[in-house]
Amino acid sequence: DLTLAATLARSSKDLEEHEYAVRSVADALAPYCTAMNVPETPFVLHLPNVMHLATDVAGVAHDSGASALELAAALHPSAAVGGTPTKVAVEMIAELEGMDRGRYAGPVGWMNAHGDGEFGIALRSAEIVGDHVRLFAGCGIVAGSDPEAELAESQAKFIPVRDALSAG
User: Fold this and answer.
1) Is the peptide bond before 160 cis (omega within 30 degrees of 0)?
2) Which of 23, 62, 91, 113 measures 20 to 30 Å from 12, CA to CA?
3) 134: which strand partners?
4) 155 Cβ partners below 8 Å, 6+ apart?
5) Residues of the chain whose pLDDT is less than 70?
6) How far apart are CA 29 and CA 93, in angstroms?
């Protein structure tokens, strides 16, 4: 695991892909913040079946009164799921994929009566309709992406959902 983590942390392809996502989050939050902390170097997040580069972006909201839900709306979709430049990329993805993503990659989380809350991106999900289950997972595709490696990564991301559905 340490060797794989070190390889990921030094991968120019993965660092480029991650930088697009972090930049889009920082750019989307900037109008709502008086100060932001955007670390230059990501850390490796170890999950049961995959590792990801991760960066915790933090900001101090100004007094605009924006709720957590408004911030989530400003962030969606980030470059992590919509590409960049986002408007053009989202249109191209819709045309190339030829499918409705439904709720895939939408914000999930909570918000209280004061507008405070916490949201994440539903990067792995499943849609159940009757006796059919459709799994969703994605990969960041950049110029240096290897199609076979991206397919293997997306298949690995399906494992937890598949296992949860087959347990019992």
Assistant:
1) no
2) 91
3) 127
4) none
5) 167-168
6) 24
DSSP string of the chain? Answer: -HHHHHHHHH-HHHHHHHHHHHHHHHHHHGGGEEEEE--SS-EEEE-SS-EEEE---EEEE-TT---HHHHHHHHPSPHHHH-SSHHHHHHHHHHHH-S--TTTT-EEEEE-TTS-EEEEE--SEEEEETTEEEEE------TT--HHHHHHHHHHHHHHHHHHHH--
* Cβ atoms of 71 and 109 closer than 8 Å: no
Token duo for residue 54: 């991760």
CA distance 25 to 106: 14
Q: Residue 167: its pLDDT value, please?
A: 67
Amino acid present at 24: S
Which residues, 6+ apart, have CB-to-CB distance to 77 below 8 Å?
86, 90, 105
Give the per-residue pLDDT at 168: 61
